[in-house]
Specification:
Structural class: alpha+beta
Order of helices and strands: EEEEEEEHHEEEEEEEEEE
Radius of gyration: 23 Å
Helix content: 10-25%
Largest sheet: 5 strands, antiparallel
Shape: globular
Amino acid sequence: MAMYTFGGTPSDVLTLTNGDVVADYPLVVRVAGTGAVVSSMFEMDGTTPISQLRSNPTSSTSPGAIRAFRVDGVAEIEYELNAAGGSVVRWYQAGREVATGAAQAAASASEVADAAAVNAAIARDHALSADSQSDAALTIATIAKSTADAARAAVLASASTISKSIVVAPGATGTYPIWRAPRECTITAVHGYRVGGTGAGINATVDTVNVLPTDLSLSTASTWLSGPTVATPTIPQGATLMLAVRSAAGSPTSVSVQVDITISET
């Protein structure tokens, strides 16, 4: 099966809900979507097994960072950290090869379309009696190239989108600092999910400023709900992203808060 690479980026640093960096800590890695524990992890050579993935020790130049590693046949994972107070912090990551493979496919499609456009132009120059046919071929090739270019642009854009989330179990009120922005980035959406109880309200803050103009009400259980238009989309470099459970009714079993973020590649 294909190998997928995770960790090793500036944002892959293990932090507690109070923002403290956690060094030399064992991490649980799960398959995104199923929650199954990933038991077979390897060093970057793809053959040396990792018996226990841990954040970098305090003696490292990057304490708390999660080093690059590889997983066989799993393209998307979730890291899991058991934080203080019984809360569980999870965050999603796609393998680097997912975006790279899609980008390469889009690039190949664009090259094929370019070649088709050139061949159509040559056919029109050398077959004046078949003008209508060569014009049709040139139009089709142009459309194919535009589609491929759009697909490549979409892939490159999606490669810089990440999500940060927290699962508060049981669902009690609180504000949890979960991430320090390594560079300026943009919040695109806030989502929430409630298990049990009768209601909950959530939000997120950049330092002390609310991301949503009003708290998102999780009025329906066991359903992902999305917040109103983001009022504070920009996270400056070095700012702290905090996820908040503002209210909880009927003793929810858990409340999840997720923020979608686009990080600039420049």
